[in-house]
Specification:
This protein is mainly α and 82 residues long. The protein has helices at residues 2-24, 45-68, 75-80. The radius of gyration is 18 Å and the shape is elongated. The mean pLDDT is 83.
């Protein structure tokens, strides 16, 4: 699961940064951005790219959490579960 989340993190970050670079440089990074090619996001490319970057960071945090295993219970929760 960690590998999948890590790969998804990379894809989301790459598309988000590529979309931002495409918009901020006037189209020089055309091949990097899938967002720029889709007509559904016409006029909202920067917003969608920022959302992709944030989603990529969230996936990175999820990949890190998946790599560490389950979150240990606090002292309060341990007594209630038994």
């Amino acid at each position: 699961m960690k590998t999948f989340f890590g790969f998804l993190c990379f894809v989301l970050l790459a598309q988000g940064v590529g979309g931002l670079l495409h918009e901020l440089t006037g189209g020089r990074f055309r091949l990097w951005s899938l967002v720029a090619r889709l007509d559904a996001f016409d006029g909202y490319e920067i917003y969608v790219s920022v959302i992709l970057v944030v989603a990529g960071l969230a996936m990175g945090a999820a990949a890190d959490a998946a790599g560490r295993g389950a979150v240990p219970l606090s002292a309060d929760q341990e007594g209630k579960g038994r």
